[in-house]
Design goal:
Elements lengths: L2 H4 L2 H23 L14 H48 L2 E7 L4 E4 L1 H6 L7 E4 H6 L3 H15 L6 E8 L5 E12 L5 E10 L1 H4 L10 H13 L6 E8 L11 H18 L7 E3 L3 E6 L4 H15 L3 E3 L2 E3 L3 E8 L7 H16 L6 E3 L2 H22 L3 E10 L4 E13 L3 E3 L5 H7 L2 H12 L6 H7 L4 E5 L2 H4 L4 H12 L6 E6 H5 L2 H13 L3 E7 L7 H5 L4 E4 L11 H16 L3 E5 L4 H9 L4 E3 L7 E2 H7 L13 H5 L1
Parallel strand pairs: 12-13, 15-17, 17-18, 18-19, 19-20, 20-21, 21-22
Antiparallel strand pairs: 1-2, 1-6, 2-3, 4-5, 5-6, 7-9, 7-12, 8-9, 10-11, 14-15, 14-22, 14-23, 15-16
Helix pairs in contact: 2-3, 9-10
């Protein structure tokens, strides 16, 4: 018989309570989260033993459940870790960082990747929304804030905006921010999160050279102009004019590598804090905190010296030509970034008009030149649109025969404001813009009918020529001869009565090609004259190498020839040389009888100048121009005067 069976009822109850209490004490371990135990009892009471067994079964079930839950947790954590690693890999590959805006708390959390993109410590950053906005470029800040609140208010599906932010090194980076708002069941915004992509390479970097690009230059200019106190500033642009030479007969990748190597060498010649930026058309720029020419020389001369050195590529040397333009901003000058950029562009354009290696500084005269160029272009386009191209004729007089050997067709433009405009005001612009071709075609359509005009034929006969000027641009046009022959056919005139005039400068741009074109013209029956001979640079070799019928001597050799004996000797020598070479001679710019008499003594027959007639429209010429009386042939020769 057990002890409990012998005990009194009171004793038995106390024993049961003690056993239950012992079991309860053991179960207290579970309160602390410990389930790795079994309930033990030494009671021989069946109920107590059942209670202990039931607790042990329950503990076994709890342990199994905990094990299963732990396994599930580990699996979930593994999946989360794997997906996190995948996401991190994707974000790293896309150069993206992650941000989260806790709207109620007003705090923005930025991932370590975002911090590293800005050159900061690679640690998570937590700051207020306002502090985050302060990092953004002032010009972009309002737009970014507007994009966030527009999405917060449900007016846009996502946040998608690009902005500029300064990194820890003081340089600007371009960021693309995308985000989405999480809302509760009532549509109330809880948080907003998204990614930040560094798009600097796409937006602020030149793909060919790897240098900062024009957009970065704009940022830098605005920053420099807005700094207080503002330092003296100079915007320098230089352009490589013949980069195509690098690619001639060389693999593209080798040419690009050579160009990048030269650009890197240029960067090394500059002070460490000066940023070199790449612009379109092989142009480069830098902003220097200098305004004295002597100091600019010190910085730029090493760069220009390097540009003068050849580039070695594929076993050969290539020399690159360059020009540069500088726009200086003084300390107290109020100027916008657009105006500063325009000044540098004008200085560079002026340098391109000069010799290679030229450095040009902006001045107000360049602005006036630009305005003139702009007005001239508009005037030309207006004349083309409204048929405002006029043909004026100036006779070339044969003083011995008393006849008109021909007429030079001179262009004038009829402008509603300026009236009749002479070529000096627009020809340079016409050639630069390519508008000279349509102007010339309109002139030809008025000049060629002169040859068939009844009034002209009655007054001046059937054999006179019409002489028309050609520019260097036209002379290089392979279609020129076909255009001239087509114009003659269209107007029903013989090409043998057409003479074209070219200047030495037009020929010198490509002598071989020009000579070939002139020869083709002569073979077609068109006469060729060298115009303005003796003005500026003149080469006597051109008189023997070019296919010429006539040489027109410029008025600069004629002016004051009667009072300047040395000039008289020069003019006589030129006339004599042309005569010996059997070229026809026309002397331009004759304004007095004494010069006519002198030229007649040298055997000159053909004279053009104000002494006989100024340029005038055909109708006025027919009515007013009177042919001179024939003069007797020369008594002396130019050869005698030259000797």
């Amino acid at each position: 018989m057990s002890v409990s069976s012998k005990a009194s009822p009171e004793g038995r109850e106390a024993h049961l309570l003690a056993q239950i209490d012992a079991i309860g004490n053991q179960l207290c371990q579970a309160v602390d989260g410990t389930f790795d135990f079994y309930v033990h009892t030494d009671s021989d009471e069946l109920a107590i033993q059942k209670l202990a067994q039931l607790n042990n079964v329950t503990l076994d079930a709890v342990r199994r459940t905990i094990g299963e839950l732990e396994q599930t947790r580990r699996e979930l954590e593994g999946r989360v870790e794997e997906r996190t690693q995948r996401l991190d890999l994707i974000l790293s590959a896309t150069n993206d960082g992650v941000w989260e805006w806790e709207i109620d708390a007003g705090q923005v959390t930025l991932s370590p990747r975002w911090a590293s993109m800005l050159g900061q410590d690679s640690a998570e950053i937590r700051q207020s929304f306002e502090a985050w906005l302060e990092l953004i470029h002032p010009t972009d800040r309002d737009a970014v804030e507007h994009a966030f609140y527009r999405h917060l208010d449900g007016l846009s599906d996502v946040v998608d905006i690009e902005y500029r932010v300064r990194n820890a090194r003081g340089a600007w980076r371009m960021m693309l921010c995308r985000g989405l708002c999480q809302r509760d069941e009532r549509g109330r915004a809880l948080r907003m999160a998204g990614t930040l992509s560094d798009t600097t390479e796409q937006r602020l970097s030149d793909p060919l050279t790897g240098l900062p690009n024009g957009a970065y230059l704009d940022l830098l200019m605005q920053e420099k102009l807005g700094s207080l106190p503002r330092p003296p500033l100079s915007l320098v642009k230089f352009q490589l004019l013949n980069v195509a030479q690098l690619f001639d007969g060389v693999a593209v990748e080798h040419a690009i590598a050579a160009l990048r190597k030269r650009v890197q060498a240029l960067r090394q010649r500059l002070p460490a804090r000066v940023t070199l930026m790449a612009l379109p058309e092989h142009t480069f720029a830098m902003v220097l905190e200098l305004d004295a020419v002597a100091e600019l020389d010190r910085v730029l001369e090493p760069v220009e010296a390097l540009l003068a050195e050849p580039v070695e590529i594929a076993g050969r040397l290539v020399w690159l030509s360059h020009v540069s333009g500088v726009a200086i901003v003084s300390l107290h000058e109020a100027i916008s970034a657009d105006e500063w950029r325009r000044q540098a562009r004008l200085a560079l354009a002026s340098a391109r008009q000069s010799d290679v290696g030229t450095r040009c500084y902006y001045s107000e005269s360049l602005r006036q030149w630009e305005r003139h160029q702009g007005r001239a272009e508009q005037m030309i386009r207006g004349a083309l649109a409204n048929r405002g191209v006029c043909c004026f004729l100036q006779p070339i007089v044969d003083i011995v025969a008393g006849t008109a050997r021909g007429f030079e067709a001179l262009m004038r433009l009829e402008d509603p404001v300026e009236g009749l405009v002479s070529p000096g005001a627009f020809v340079e612009v016409a050639e630069r813009t390519g508008l000279i071709a349509p102007l010339w075609e309109m002139l030809m359509d008025q000049a060629l009918p002169v040859l068939k005009d009844p009034g002209m034929r009655e007054r001046f006969g059937e054999t006179f020529l019409v002489s028309v000027n050609l520019s260097s641009r036209q002379l290089m046009d392979s279609r020129l001869l076909e255009l001239m022959l087509a114009a003659c056919a269209r107007h029903g005139v013989a090409q043998s009565r057409l003479q074209i005039e070219v200047t030495e400068s037009a020929v010198l741009s490509d002598p071989v090609r020009a000579s070939r074109m002139l020869e083709r013209m002569r073979e077609a029956g068109i006469q060729v004259a060298m115009d303005d001979f003796g003005s500026g640079y003149s080469s006597l070799a051109q008189l023997t190498s070019l296919p010429l019928d006539t040489v027109k001597i410029d008025r600069s050799l004629v002016l004051n020839v009667n009072t300047l004996p040395r000039k008289q000797h020069v003019l006589a020598a030129v006339v004599a040389l042309c005569q010996r070479l059997e070229h026809g001679v026309v002397v331009e710019g004759v304004e007095d009888w004494e010069t006519v008499t002198l030229l007649r003594q040298w055997g000159v027959r053909d004279i053009q100048g104000f002494f006989y007639a100024r340029p005038m429209p055909m109708a006025q010429l027919v009515k007013q121009f009177e042919l001179p009386l024939p003069l007797s042939p020369a008594g002396a020769s130019a050869n005698d005067a030259a000797g």
